[in-house]
Each structure stands twice: as C-alpha cells, then as structure tokens.
Design brief:
The complex is a heterodimer. By secondary structure, chain A is α+β, with helices and mostly antiparallel strands. Helices cover 20% and strands 36% of the residues of chain A. The radius of gyration of chain A is 25 Å and the shape is globular. Chain B is mainly beta. Classes of the chains: A alpha+beta, B mainly beta.
Chain lengths: 451, 444
C-alpha cells in the first residue's frame, strides 16, 4: 500500500509540469512589482494626546492609473500618504475613500510624479477565475513590522472564517459585519496590513488585514470579491453605499432540527424600514430578493447582511418570511446606511483624548440612553489626571449641562477655554456610578504640536 | 442512663433559656444531603445524613443552612417531639435552603434587619439538641467578649462555640432578643467545616467558630415578616475639596449626591443630584462611613431629618427635609419562578431594573435572577442566558409577569425544549434551551 503511494507521488511529480519552487518564483515575479509600502501620516491618539506620526503598512496596485488598495486601519484616517514602490521610488498618494466596515481604503498615486521620476510598477490582478481552495499554496507580501518587501508563504487554512460581530478597528469603528475572512498560516504581522495574499498564479486572492496577537500561523485576509466590490464603489462614489433595513444586528442562525431553512430575526430596530414594513422579531426569513437563505452557523450571517447591504438603496427589497408556520412575502424599502468615521478629539487643555460613545459601548456598559464622550487616554501629569479622570470614563456633562456627543463636548470645552474658566466641574460615569470631578484646564500657551 | 443524662442536661439548658422569644420558632432538621467535592480532579458526589437546626419563617416554611439542590429525606422536628414531619426543599442557594412543611403549627419568627450592630456588641445563638437520643430541644448560648466582627456579609464570633448542639441553621438574636441572623456553618480550629451532627459518622459533638449571616443576606427567603432596613435612595460620594470649591462650597464637608433613585424617599423629599448631605438625624455626615452610621438601625418607613446644602441663584442654601426611608427593592420567593429543568430563576421586572440595565421603559417581561452554572440556560444556543436578561416570550407566549412565565413553562413541560425571546439592553434575541432530565431519585 505504502509502496503504491510512493510510486504514485513519484509518477505525479513530472506530470505536474513545474515544481513548487518554480511556481513560487513565478507568482513572486508577477505580484511583487505591484506591492507598495504605504507610509501614511496619521494622528495617533496615545497617552491622552494627539500625536502626528508616520505608520507603516502595505498595499497593492490594482489599476494602471495608480490605484492602490490597502487597509482602512492603515490609511483611513491619513492626512498624507507616502508610498514606496517596488522599484524603491517614493511617490505621494491621495486617499480616495475608505470603508471601515470591511477595513479597506483606496489610494490614488500621484501619477504626474510617477511619470516625472520614471517609476515603474505592474498591476496585480485582483481576484482569480479559479476558485480558491483550502490547502492552496499562498504567498503573503508586505512589510511586516516595517521590514519592507517581505514574502512569507503558507496555505489557505479556511475560506470563510467568521471572527464575531463585535470587532472594532483601533480607531473605534465596527468592522467585519459584511465579510468573512480567508484564514492563512502564511506569517502575517503588523505592517503586513493592506498587502496582498496571492496564489501560485500571482493573482491577488485577498488583502491581508488581521493577525491574532500571540497566535501562531493565524492570519486573516479580506477575500478578493469583497475587495473588488468595495474598491469599485469607492472609485465610483468615493464611498461604499450600503442599503439598510434594520435587521443587521439581530440575525440569528436556525438550529439544525428547525423544519425550515432561513435566518431568524432576533431584533428589528424600532422605526426602521423593516419594522415599518411589518417584519417582526421571531420571523424566519427564507428568501431575500429571491435568493434562498440558509443560516445554521454564525459564519453564515455576514453573507446575509451583505445581500441586504449590496441591494439598491431606496428600492423595495423582497423578503420571503415564515411566521407561525405561514409563509408571506414582505416588501421593505431600503434606506442608505449612514456610517461615519469615528471622530476623536484631543482636549489638550484638559490633558485627555475623547471620542463619541458608540452604541456598542453604551450597550456593553449599560449606559441606557445616557450619552457623552468616552475618555480614550489621559496625559500623565495633565489636568484630567490630576482630577482623577481615567481612561475608560464617560464624561456625561459639565456641571449641570449634559453633553450628547463629541460635538457637544467640543462646544462646552471651547467655551470653557475661551472664558478661561479656572475649574470645570465634570460629571463622570464609571462602573455604573456617577461621580463629580474638577478639571483645572491648562490656561496660557501650549507647547507646539510635534508635527 | 444515657437517656436520663441527656434529658437532665436538656431540662437544665431549657431552664436557662425558658423565656419566650424568637427561639421558640426553632426546629430540628434532618436530611440526606448530596455532598459535592473534588478529589484528584474528579467531581465526586456522596450522600451524607445531616442533622441541623432550622427556623420557622412563614406559614409551613422553615429556613435552614443550605442543604443543596439535591437533598432528599428532609424531615423537620418540633422541639418536645420525637417524630418528624416530611419536608420538601422549595428554594436553595449556596448558604440557605427553604423547606416547605405541611401541618407545621409553630409560630414563625419575625426577623429584623434593623440592627444597630457595632463591633463588640453581644449576640446569642440558639441551636438545637436532639435526634437519636430523644426529644429535640432548644439550647441557647451567649457570646461574650468582642463577639461581633461585621464585614458586611457575615459575622465571626469569639469565643468559639462548643457543646453537643446542632448549630448550622441556628438562630441568632441581638442584645434586645430580636432575631437578626442565622449560623450557616461552624468552622473548627483546623479550618474544616465541623459542628452539627453528622449522623453516625460524627462521634464527637460539634464545636468551633460559627459563621453568622445577617438577615439582609437571606431576607429574600422571608415573606412579609421582616422588619426592613430603610434606605434614603441616593448614591453619593464624599465631597472632594476641589469639587466643593467648584460648587462654591469651599471648606464644607458632606456627601455629594450623584444620583437620586426615582420614587425613593429622597426623590419625594426633593433631594437632587449635586446637593450635599451634611447632616442626618442631627449627626454630621462628613464621610460615607459617618452617613452609614447615622442610618444604622433605621427601619423602612421611619422619618429622618436630612440637612442639605445646595447652590442656586440665591447663593448657598441650607435646608432640612424629612425623608421617609424606603426598603431596598427585593422580590420574595413567592414572586419568583424557578425553572429548575432549564437552569434559571426569574423574578418580576421592576422599573429600577429597566433603568439600570438600559432596557426600553416599556419592556414587559420577567427578569433573570440566576442562571445555574453549567445548567441548560448556561449552555443554551446560540448563546447563554445571562443574569439581568429580560425574558419577553416563551415559545409563542408573551410573559409579562411571573405568573404568565409559570404557565408558559408548564405548557412547555412536555416538549423538553423552549425558545426564549429575550431583551438585553436595547436589543432582543432568541435563545434556545434544552431541558435537563430530572435528577434520578437516590436509592433508598
């Protein structure tokens, strides 16, 4: 038996035309000239203050006129982006648009500059006509920890990895609601972000975007079809238009022994298009726009969300619904999903940084309908630190005035600064309790920004 | 001879404590308890016959130290008799068990939460003596020097208790003879749980340091017979120097009110957030401890004078208001539903819960009070039920009250599976539970 197997392998090798090494070389030669080392200048909110810093990530050129795909968490908040091409030429790029929901951003290289300095690059082919398979050999290209033009190899470990509903980007936006990931054991480190995952034909099958801290051989890439959709939307509209009906967050898989196949609505946002059209929690959605729905695991959910999200905005969307054993058809008029970049603010005279309280934060911290701003960092030795304010506190208001969001905070903050208020009474929420703290803003000249 | 000696001892002890009091509500309890412990990494359950004390706390209800969920052969013995009455455990937690006994004539004890216990004050505990040797009888002992160390949850007493008395489940009274607590366990010098009769295996009578739980830790097992501790209904913090200055109250000391519980006595008296409580019942309240002390021993319904500082357009105002103290909200066992096969307990949903858990104000349902670890609710799909969830629906039936929940669970009894529709924060979800098979009856 063993002998036969050995024999077959032996026989198969010459039939496979090229050996693996040759194939890797070919894939490398096709993909590497399209790799970009992306170095955006971003605002880092660290240690209770905003600092301008250059970070490093990767990207890949996908169109001859200099369009680069990278991660939103690399360049989505960038003020300026510098790209180093594979031929070691450095070119400035402009942020065309970003999509935190899929963690993708599109950059436009300054083509005048490219021509002027005679930079050379190739265009990677985004997506493969051949179906990606588990076990397929892949190469990850990028700049892990800033070590530019690095190549690592591995195989596709899983094609539709689901990482949960509640993941957020470092800047605070929720992500991963509409896509699953390609899992690979090719080494993915910080800095690989935005770089391509390519197959042995040199085609980009994904954009490397996540690793697992402390994990070994656990990297995750956004699949090429998702990348293509987002990229085309950004090129056409400057953003990704998504439809929303108000069922996204409450989709629940059905158990195996359920008599029907579909997805259960666990929550329907009150007042949403779905609620107005008569969809109710407990309904089982069996079809959307004629397409059969079958959710038995949590990993099946993102594709259903995507089905709704990619349907046309402001158009009726047909839902096939099973309620109490009866089937019915319900038309829901979609609305455009409004998503905005998370805004952060450096309250320099307070010595802390804040951002909007997200719904998710409010939910997990039982804030109820209270809102305010979340303290994301406190500067050592600053006024907020002296007042005993900590990172993770929620500022609900100043003295007797509540604040609804970051804009409200800024108004109050700027008023206090303008009036040169010596001490500001701040209402803080911590561990389900309200506290009062007194912040003595730093008046007078501030040190220069280290821009 | 032996019988006679015990009888003489019993009569002697009885004569010491012959005065009527809460100890008249003591009874003896025997049961076959399932001891659970881990040995060499394995979970082991062993049946063990236990005998301990218990207290009649309501009509046909006896409260005793915890017998666990799975105890059987529960019998209750009234002092002066030898024959027991059959009992059934209706509710249990890690410290207490509530036993239902039909035909129990003993008058229930009235517990009081209103207890001005200070370290060093004296308590008396009342255990029970008897069992195989003859009639059951009550024994009382007084702790003398520095008896009480109150860490808020339990009381350690010194000197250790010794004697042939069954003490877990024993009643504790304060210096005025009011029932204020219960002994849940007696620890001997080696730190092992001892005390009490352990059937034939325990030759030596019990002894050691009793661990006493004050009424407020088991008040939820009692029905209407508790004198409730009163609260103001405010949350606050010690007024910080800087905050005082910012409020225009430089140099003043007190408790800054940060939140007033809606509907509480404080809210009704017009106390508002950002006011400062400087005096309660004439005592200055510069610190949280001082405020707690000023409120100690006050029952719900009591009227108490609260002096407040406030800053308004007219400057600093100081005024004194009368606040009627209210009892902290807590459901009674009758109000609860224990879905044992599904591994959770539910209680009525109150406005305070809606507010604290960020539920919509019009949420109609019942609140999950407890989820049994490892039980069906803890391993439900697609996710576990959590304490604090509001159950809105069981299968297709709305459950706006515990009565409706009870009905719905009864209806779902046959299927062995239920789907709960649950509100958690601002979102709803469905959770599927598969019933646990009822525990097998232990061999007799």
């Amino acid at each position: 038996m063993r002998l036969t197997a050995v024999f077959l392998v032996f026989l198969a090798a010459p039939l496979g035309a090229e050996d693996l090494q040759t194939q890797v070389y070919r894939a490398r030669d096709r993909a590497l000239p399209a790799l970009v080392n992306v170095r955006p200048v971003v605002d880092l909110f660290q240690g209770g203050r905003r600092r301008r810093a250059q970070v490093t990530g990767s990207g890949v050129i996908v169109r001859a006129d200099g369009l680069v795909v990278t991660n939103f968490h690399v360049a989505g908040h960038a003020r300026k982006v510098y790209c180093t091409l594979a031929d070691k030429n450095r070119v400035e790029a402009k942020l065309l648009g970003g999509d935190p929901a899929t963690d993708l951003a599109v950059l436009q290289l300054d083509m005048k500059e490219v021509r002027r300095i005679g930079a050379v690059f190739t265009v990677a082919s985004l997506g493969s006509k051949r179906a990606v398979q588990v076990g397929e050999f892949v190469l990850a290209l990028g700049a892990p920890r800033g070590l530019s033009t690095s190549l690592t190899t591995g195989v596709v470990s899983n094609l539709s990895r689901f990482l949960g509903d509640d993941i957020t980007l470092p800047s605070g936006e929720p992500t991963g609601l509409y896509n699953t990931w390609i899992q690979t054991d090719a080494a993915i480190n910080p800095g690989n972000s935005g770089g391509p995952l390519v197959n042995l034909l040199g085609e980009v099958i994904g954009i490397n975007s996540r690793g697992v801290q402390g994990g070994d051989g656990l990297g995750f890439a956004i699949p090429a079809p998702v990348v293509r959709y987002v990229y085309e939307q950004i090129v056409a509209n400057g953003r990704v238009k998504r439809s929303w009906v108000g069922i996204d967050r409450g989709l629940q898989p059905l158990s195996f022994d359920a008599p029907v196949r579909g997805v259960r609505l666990g929550h329907v946002v009150p007042g949403s298009p779905a609620a107005k059209a008569g969809l109710k929690p407990g309904d089982i959605v069996t079809t959307i726009s004629g397409e059969k729905i079958d959710a038995r695991f949590a990993d099946d959910i993102p594709s259903i969300r995507r089905l709704v999200a990619t349907s046309p905005v402001d158009e009726p969307l047909a839902f096939g619904v099973m309620r109490n054993g009866k089937t019915m058809a319900i038309q829901v008029r979609t609305r455009e999903l409004t998503a905005r970049k998370a805004q952060r603010f450096d309250a320099r005279r307070f010595g802390c940084t804040v951002r909007d309280v997200t719904d998710r934060f409010a939910r997990t911290n039982r804030l109820g309908d209270q809102r305010g701003v979340l303290v994301t960092g406190v500067m050592r030795g600053g006024p907020a630190a002296a007042a005993g304010i900590r990172s993770g506190d929620v500022i609900l208001g100043f003295a007797r005035t509540g604040i609804a969001n970051l804009d409200g905070f800024r108004t109050q903050y700027e008023e206090a600064v303008e009036k040169k208020t010596e001490s500001v009474l701040v209402n803080v929420w911590r561990n389900q309790r309200k506290l009062f703290r007194v912040v003595k803003p730093k008046l007078g000249a501030l040190e220069e920004d280290d821009e | 001879m032996k019988h006679l000696a015990t009888l003489v001892l019993a009569i002697f002890l009885l004569s010491v404590t012959a005065t009527a009091g809460p100890q008249d509500s003591l009874v003896g309890v025997s049961a076959r308890k399932q001891f659970e412990f881990r040995m060499q990494g394995r979970q082991i359950t062993r049946p063990l016959n236990v005998r301990q004390a218990g207290v009649v706390v309501g009509k046909n209800l006896v409260l005793t130290a915890s017998l666990g969920d799975k105890a059987s052969n529960v019998r209750i013995y009234v002092p002066g008799t030898t024959n027991g009455l059959d009992g059934e455990i209706v509710d249990s937690d890690e410290s207490f068990s509530l036993v239902k006994v039909p035909d129990l004539k003993t008058k229930p004890v009235v517990f009081t939460e209103v207890w001005a216990a200070e370290p060093g004050s004296t308590v008396t505990w009342h255990g029970i003596l008897g069992g195989r040797l003859g009639e059951w009888s009550v024994v009382s002992k007084q702790a003398t020097k520095d008896a009480i160390l109150d860490d808020g949850r339990r009381i350690y007493s010194d000197p250790p208790f010794r004697g042939p008395v069954l003490t877990p489940g024993a009643l504790v009274t304060d210096a005025q003879g009011k029932a204020v607590g219960m002994v849940i366990l007696v620890q001997n010098e080696e730190g092992a749980a001892g005390g009490g009769g352990r059937g034939r295996r325990m030759r030596r009578p019990g002894g050691g340091t009793p661990f006493i739980r004050p009424v407020r830790t088991f008040a939820h097992f009692l029905t209407g017979t508790v004198m409730k501790r009163g609260v103001l209904g405010v949350e606050g913090e010690t007024l910080d120097e800087q905050v005082a200055e910012a409020l225009g109250l430089k140099g003043r000391k007190g408790i800054l009110v940060t939140r007033v519980v809606p509907g509480s006595g404080a809210a009704k008296a017009g106390i508002e957030a950002q006011q400062v409580i400087v005096k309660i019942a004439g005592q200055e309240t510069a610190t949280a401890v001082a405020m707690k002390r000023a409120l100690r021993g006050q029952a719900a319904g009591a009227k108490i004078a609260v002096t407040l500082l406030g800053v308004g357009v007219e400057g600093i105002t100081e005024r004194t208001v009368e606040v009627t103290l209210t009892a902290p909200e807590e459901s009674t066992p009758e109000q609860r539903v224990r879905a044992q096969r599904f591994g959770f307990t539910a209680e009525p949903l109150t406005d305070a819960m809606r507010r604290d858990r960020g539920l919509p104000a019009d949420t109609k349902g019942v609140s999950v009070r407890r989820v049994a670890p490892g039980g069906p609710a803890a391993i439900a799909t697609p996710e576990r039920l959590r304490r604090g969830d509001a159950i809105l629906r069981v299968n297709e039936t709305d459950v706006p009250s515990v009565a409706k929940l009870r009905e719905a669970l009864e209806k779902a009894k046959k299927s062995g599976e239920i789907t709960l529709f649950v509100q958690r924060g601002t979102e709803t979800r469905f959770i599927e539970l598969e019933a646990e098979a009822p525990p097998a009856e232990p061999k007799k």
